[in-house]
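Hi X.,

You mentioned you wanted examples for the new student's onboarding notes, showing what a folding record looks like when two proteins sit in one file. Here is a clean example. The first protein comes first, with its sequence line followed by its structure tokens.
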Amino acid sequence: MVSGVLDIESETALAAPAAALAAVLRPGDTIALSGDLGAGKTTLARAMLRALGWAGDVPSPTYTLVQPYDLEAFPVWHVDLYRLEDPHEAEALGLFETEAALLIEWPERLGARLPADALRLHLAGSGDAPRHLTWTAPKAWEGRWPPLPPR
């Protein structure tokens, strides 16, 4: 596993790491997005979907729990588990049967059910304050995340 931190000057600057993630995302990947309310999890997911070519609305899945996007390359599900009270409630969502790439907000609600090969991202900071994006990248993400520095 590889871990690290990236300092991001503002919420709008999340577009750059989102584009880097979108460029290496594959069907069946899971990205776990954790952080406090207002840290930028939904903003990062929206920016990833935009970078993947989605031009329509990107509503927060807080109440629907799963918002599917049928992109040209492969499907992506934006998932918000904030309202889950028990990890077993995730069974009904189909998260463990899909080949879609998953962008999961509040992944800690899954407990031990979060796939071991998930890229774990944590956002800290809110409002106008700078953000800190920390990650733990398992072997499945080797060579894809973190992005290589520009030459």
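Then the second protein repeats the pattern, sequence line and then tokens:
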Amino acid sequence: MIAGLIICASLTVVDGDTVKCDGQNMRLLGEGVPFVSGIDTPEIGSHAKCIKERKLALIAKGRLKELLAEKGLRIVRSGAVDKTPSHRPLVNIYRTNGEEIGKKLLREASRAPGPRGIGMTGAID
């Protein structure tokens, strides 16, 4: 897969670390290094291991949705895919001020109360 700018007619939030661009799931990298660092949030719905994880997943999803509501976002494909069976492309999403959204989420999670903020681990699984 080649790195480069992505244009989406439709960009929606799937969960706290995955967006859907014109029907294709893409995972946030958070300016990390593929398979070394990046963003990983709690699982949502039936994939969650417990009620607490479901609640944390909904918080993470809601925060990403807030950030993606901004106009003028720039989506850049890293050229790598994640290790899941679906091989989602890893992307960075930049705000108009140049701030990368995944990196912002990681920073916010590190300042939140609790051992891992809202459940972001700081690593791509």
